[in-house]
Amino acid sequence: MHKTNRAFVVSAIILSVLAAATAASAQMFRTLVLFNGTDGSNSGYGYASLVQGTDGYLYGTTPQGGANDGCSSAGCGTVFRISPKGVLTTLYSFCSQSDCSDGAMPFGGLVEGSDGNLYGITAGGGTGCSGGCGTVFEITREGQLTTLHSFDGTDGEEPWGNLIQAPDGNLYGVTAVGGTIGYGVVFKVAADGTFATLYSFCVQSDCTDGAIPQAGLVAGTDGYLYGTTAQGGIMSCLRAQGELGCGTVFKITPSGALTTLHRFGLTDGAEPFGTLIEGLDGNYYGTTELGGNSGCDGGFTSCGTAFEMTPDGALTTLYRFCSQAECTDGYWPLAGLALGTDGNFYGTTYRG
């Protein structure tokens, strides 16, 4: 079996537009769209990565901006489409319905379903609770939006990260808060909108099962769904900052049986925010915002790591950021990794 190359390319920048490659030996960067607020804003904030549809267009969300300001003076967010030549079309402005019953502030990106429609989440709005606890929505390529589910707090609140469509055809995702204890859930939504909470975090003593999942899930080739929680795990970890723990890596069956694979302990990482990715070797790769080396940003806590995890839970720390003088290698990798066609992983750091 081909083994994944563990080399990393680290870039300490944040990109909010598309880089277009010309030839293999030459790269060209071109700004396709500048948002002006009325057509969306803060497109790079949160977890709103672009997705390319089978029609060749790029689709995404902005958590603010748009035609409506019922949830915020900065606007309630949009769904948009961009042609390869940079023509922007706003497909939908959230809070178009009374009391933002259609949702507001989509912090996650979109996923194209097997039916050709796009699916996503909003962190606010909906009809499930006072003020809005968030929604799951479906939208056609022409901009017709259907709210599939409104969270009510008990079944989750403030969904973050991207949805995924698993091989069983259902959509899966997480909420950062809400659920039985209030520290987030894993949920499932069928194409017809049938909703089920699969697991509520922090139901174990001292949140050893994890708390506050903020990254999306990944469907493993073994049938499990893999994910992370930003807190929980080892209760003593990061207590100086008032956290519940350094976070966990977990796997869960489509029916809701959860296994905690790893509890971070600061030296091997803390607060994983990015979505995991499955490598060609069948292992899972990701980053933690904190943990590992100290000395970045005036010594604040720690600088972040990149790690490898086997499906059975054996973790290997591949890299500790701020290993180079003056953190020229970067620190605080908030996003996950991408697997290139060359077998290497690529990622970004927030600072450094």
What does this structure look like?
By secondary structure, this protein is an all-beta fold. 0% of the residues lie in helices and 34% in strands. Strands 4-5-6-7 form a four-stranded antiparallel sheet, with no helix packed on it. A hairpin with a 5-residue loop joins β10 (135-139) and β11. Residues 1-25 have low confidence and may be disordered.
List the helices and strands and how they pair.
Layout: E1 8-11, E2 19-23, E3 26-29, E4 51-52, E5 58-62, E6 78-82, E7 88-93, E8 111-112, E9 118-122, E10 135-139, E11 145-150, E12 157-165, E13 171-177, E14 185-189, E15 195-200, E16 218-219, E17 225-229, E18 248-252, E19 258-263, E20 277-278, E21 284-288, E22 305-309, E23 315-320, E24 338-339, E25 345-348
Parallel strand pairs: 1-25
Antiparallel strand pairs: 2-3, 4-5, 5-6, 6-7, 8-9, 9-10, 10-11, 12-13, 13-14, 14-15, 16-17, 17-18, 18-19, 20-21, 21-22, 22-23, 24-25
Features:
about 350 residues; mainly beta; disordered N terminus
Helical content band: under 10%
Largest beta-sheet details: 4 strands, antiparallel
Order of strands in the sheet with most strands: 4-5-6-7
Question: Which spans of ≥5 residues are poorly predicted at pLDDT below 50?
Answer: 1-25
Query: What is the C-alpha radius of gyration, as a whole number of Å?
Result: 20 Å
| SSE ordering | EEEEEEEEEEEEEEEEEEEEEEEEE
Summed up, the helix count is 0
What proportion of the residues form beta strands (DSSP E)? 25-35%
Distance between the termini: 36 Å
Overall mean pLDDT = 88
Beta strand count: 25
What is the global morphology?
globular
Q: Structural class of the secondary structure composition?
A: mainly beta
